[in-house]
Amino acid sequence: MATATTLSPSIITSNAESTNLEVNPPTTNDGPFNPKKHLAFAPPARIYTMADIGLPPDVGVSPVAVSEPFPLFTREAVMRMRDEALAGPVLENCQYSSSLAQSQLRGYADKYAPFIYAAWKHPTTVDIISRVAGIDLAVQFDLEIGHINLSRKPDNNNNNTVATPSQQPSSCSRDNEPIVGWHTDSYPFVCVVMLSECSGMVGGETELRMGSHGGGGGGGTLKIRSPQMGHAVVLQGRYITHRALRALPLASLPGGSDSEEPERITMVTSFRPRDPHVRDDTVLTTVRPVSDLGELYAQFAAYRLEMLAARIQTQLAELRSSTDATGKGERTRMGVEARRLKEFLREQRDFLERTEREIVDEQEVVKGVDTDSVRSDPSIDSM
C-alpha cells in the first residue's frame, strides 16, 4: 500500500488557479518571480515511499520515492517559463539530442531565462520540494536548472504558439516508444513540471521499476500519472529506474480519428541533499553527452569540493575540541581514536576518487551517446 505523507496545507499564498491552464493566452511580463504570485502549491494527494515500491531501507537518501502530481506553479508562471525556454536564443544555442531523449534544452537558465532561474532558486520553491522529498535539498547547480524535454520540437519560426490538440493536423500512426527510455538519473532528486496542456492527452505517465524487498513492490512496475500543466512530480530518480511514456491525443483511442502527436514539454530541475555530510551518489553519466563539459565539470567539481571542505572543517573542529577539553586552550590527553580518524580519511579519499572518475576527458565523451542508461526490459535488475 502507498504511504501518504502529511504536509502543511499551504506554504505560500496564491491568488491564481493551478488547474485548467490554457495553451495560447497572451503573455505579459508581470515582473520578477514572486512566490506569492507565481506559486500555487498544494500538497500531493499521495507520496510513495521506497518501501512501497519494494526497495530496501539502505537505498537512497530519503524514505520518499515519488509523489503523485501536485500543483506548483500558476498559469502566469508557466507562460513566462514557456516564453523564456522556447525563445530563439535558447533553441539555437542550447538544444541537444541523445540516445536517451530526442530533443532537450539545457544550460540556458542562468544565461537566457531570469524568471526560470529565479523561480527554482527561490527559497520558498526549494522549501516546497524539500518538504515533498522528505529531506532538506538544494538545487544541484545552475546547469541543471530548468532542463527541458520535448516530445515534439517547437516551430523555430513561431515557437511561442502551440496548437491545442483539437487544432492539430492529422497523421496516420503513433510511435509507441517512450519519450525518455529506461534510466536512472545522475542526481539524487528531480522535480518534473509540465509546461504543456494535457487535457486532450492520454498516457504520458512516468513508469518506475519496482523492487521485491519486503514484498512491497513485487518486482513489477508502477505508473505515476502525467501531471497537468503547472503541476509537478518529485522523484528520487538516482535510485529508481524509470522512463517517461509517450502521450497520445484522445482522438487516437478506438473510435477516435487520427491526429498529430500532441506537444509535451516538461521542465526538470535536479536537487541534492543540502547537508554536506549526507551521502552524495551523484554521477554524470546521463548529462555528459548533452552538456558543455567545461561548464559541467566546473560546477560539479565546485560543489563537491565545497562538500569536502565542510566535512574537513567539521572534523578539524572535533580534533581541536578533543585536545581542549577544558575550553581554556589547555592541551589534554583525550586525543582521538586512530580507527575513527582513518575511517574519515578513507571516506574522503573515496569521495575524491569518485569525483575524479566522473570527470572524463573530453575526447572520450561521445556527444549524444549515453552508454550508461538502462533501456532494456523492465525485468532486468536496475543499476
Automatic annotation (TrEMBL):
This is Fe2OG dioxygenase domain-containing protein. Residues 1-35, 150-176 are annotated as: Disordered. PANTHER family: FE2OG DIOXYGENASE DOMAIN-CONTAINING PROTEIN, YALI0B19030P. Residues 1-31, 156-173 have a biased composition (Polar residues). Transmembrane segments: none annotated.
